[in-house]
Design goal:
three-stranded antiparallel beta sheet, 2 helices, alpha+beta, 69 residues
């Protein structure tokens, strides 16, 4: 199953969020913007600034770790 590595930016927090998902990226962004309890719930202005599609979740997670390092 394909997975996406992505980077979000919040102007309000002046911070980036780096993650990966097997959901459609639009659905994942909607969840980040919805009322929930996680680190990204601190802001409601997240914008997708970058994404890459990978063949599976493992590859997307590896890319996430690469960028965070």
């Amino acid at each position: 199953m394909p997975a996406t590595f992505y980077i979000l930016f919040s102007q309000q927090l002046d911070r980036y969020y780096i993650g990966h998902t097997t959901e459609h990226i639009e659905e994942r962004l909607r969840k980040h913007l919805a009322n929930h309890q996680s680190w990204t719930s601190r802001a409601k202005d997240w914008q997708l600034v970058y994404s890459e599609v990978h063949p599976d979740k493992s590859a997307a997670y590896q890319r996430e770790r690469e960028v965070k390092a």
